[in-house]
Each structure stands twice: as C-alpha cells, then as structure tokens.
Design brief:
The chain has twelve helices and five strands. The chain has 286 residues and is of the alpha/beta class. A five-stranded parallel sheet has the order 2-1-3-4-5, sandwiched between helices. The termini are far apart. InterPro entries: Homeodomain-like_sf, HTH_RpiR, RpiR-like, RpiR-like_SIS, SIS_dom, SIS_dom_sf, WH-like_DNA-bd_sf.
Length: 286
C-alpha cells in the first residue's frame, strides 16, 4: 500500500474529504478538529462548539455531513482511534483558555518537537523506500511549490541535484507549467508541496500529471484536502504556537528524503558528487 493514509472511514479522513465544500464556520470547525481530533472524545457538542468558536447548530450539521447519525456515534469513533495510540489524537486544547507562555522560545521548541514527532510517527520505512527508489530511478523529477511552499521545493531540488541530474523546481519566476509537464511519462516523478493556501496552479498540475500517469508524491499539512491523483500522500503537522504555521516537520521530511536519495543513488550518485566537487575546485566557487 503506497498511501500514508488512515482507514478510509476514519474520523480524520472523513473531515479531510469535506474540506473543499465547507462554509466559513464549518471550515473553522474542521480546522479545529484536524488540529485536535481527540477533543471530540472528551467534550459535549456545546463544549466543542465553544472551543472552536462556532454555534451548536454548526457542530450538529457538520457531524451529519461526515456521515454520522449522531454526535455520540462520532465520539465513539474518535475514542476508538484515540485508544489505538495515534499521537494525532493525544494533543488537547484547554476549554479554559491557553496559559500565557513563560518563555516564547520554550513554547516554540515544544510545538516544533510535537509537530516533528506527530509527523514522523505516520511514516514507515517501506513507504519511504518506495518513494526514494522511484525518485532515484526517475528519468525526470519535477518539484512544485508556490508561495510559502516554493522554498521547500527549491531546497529539496538543490539537495537531490547533487546525485540526480534531472531535477527541476517549478514554477520559476514568470513561468507557466505546460513547458515542464509536456512529455511526462509513468517512470517520471512529480513532488508537490501542497500546504494550505496554494495558488490555483496546483489543482491543474495534479490533474494533468495524473492523466499522464507519472508517480506523484503529495506533501501537505493536516488542514489541506487530500488529492486522489497522489501515488503517496504525507501530511505534515504544521500547527504553530502563534499566528504562523510551523514548518519544522516539512523541512525535516525534506532532509529525510534527500538523505535517503543520496544514499540510494549508489555508485552513480557518488561519481556525480565527486565530479561536482572537482568542478567546485576548478572554478574556485566555494
């Protein structure tokens, strides 16, 4: 099984499947549920509504949208998932409000460590090796990211370029996508950074690449909808202690992928890396 996804009928999967069709209030509730899914097992519907800043009616309507007959049925589902030990269901938000942090640095460190642990807990060696093997064998690799995700695309491309010759981060300034997508084949790979608030280019890119049959690694956050075109999906925990998302886990995933790629590239990769170092010396670049 390629996809790093929960069971098709899991609570988190049900919420994520509805994200693109929600009203403003329902989306606020959905975002809260995805950050703190375990809360449903502990609170009454009215308490959950207060925590998420929505009405009781919004909670009831949303629970029905997820396919549950009642709030109690949804709570039982969440309780089963919480008992399975998933770290995603262990995070909690206090109904009495947040305690002012004694140290901003300590708060950021704690959140970063939590995001990192919860993200890596969903990974497994077999899945990661499948991804890395496909990348190393791919004749072409395209890495897509816009807005805040553009930096991740550039970083991952730069690291893999040391051992793989044909890696391109798209789109570059002023570029369209058609010139890059033309000729994509099933052996090629597309890596898409799909953290929330992407541009409209991403959906068109995924649809086109899906039709071409290339392998797609979709890296997103817990607040972003899934994509049916993805061969592999990894959701990074990006909750921040302040107004900004925390992307420590995304960078760590990039480092994991690039390190595994360098190791898996074997003799050909080492030969390319050695040639690059010689050119650095000849050109006096560093």
């Amino acid at each position: 099984m390629h996809h790093s996804k929960p069971h098709a009928n899991s609570f988190v999967r049900r919420v994520r499947s509805q994200l693109e069709a929600l009203s403003t209030a329902e989306r606020r509730l959905a975002d809260f549920m995805l950050e703190f899914p375990g809360e449903l097992a502990s609170y009454a519907a009215s308490e959950l509504a207060a925590l998420a800043g929505v009405s009781n009616a919004t909670v009831s309507r949303f629970i029905r949208r997820l396919g549950y007959a009642s709030y109690e049925e949804a709570k039982r589902d969440v309780r089963r998932e919480k008992e399975s030990g998933s770290p995603l269901f262990q995070a909690a938000k206090s109904a009495a409000g947040e305690t002012p942090p004694a140290s901003r640095i300590a708060t950021h460190l704690e959140q970063s460590q939590s995001n990192l642990a919860r993200t890596f807990a969903q990974l497994n060696d077999m899945q990661m090796q499948d991804i890395v093997t496909a990348l190393v064998k791919a004749p072409r690799i395209l890495i897509f990211g816009t807005r805040g995700s553009h930096g991740f695309a550039r970083y991952l491309r730069w690291q893999m370029l040391q051992v793989i010759p044909c890696v391109v981060a798209i789109p570059d300034a002023g570029e369209s996508l058609g010139e890059h997508l033309v000729g994509l084949a099933p052996q090629d790979c597309l890596v898409v950074f799909g953290m929330r608030r992407q541009t409209g280019q991403m959906s068109g890119l995924l649809e086109a690449a899906g039709k071409m049959g290339c392998k797609i690694l979709f890296i997103s956050d817990a607040m972003s909808p899934d994509r049916r075109e993805a061969t592999w999906s990894i959701q990074c925990q990006c909750m921040g202690p302040g107004p900004l998302d925390n992307h420590v886990a995304v960078m760590a995933l990039c480092d994991l992928i690039s390190t595994m790629v360098v190791e898996s590239a074997g003799a050909a990769g080492r030969k390319r890396l050695a040639a690059i170092e010689l050119l650095h010396e000849d050109l006096d670049e560093l």
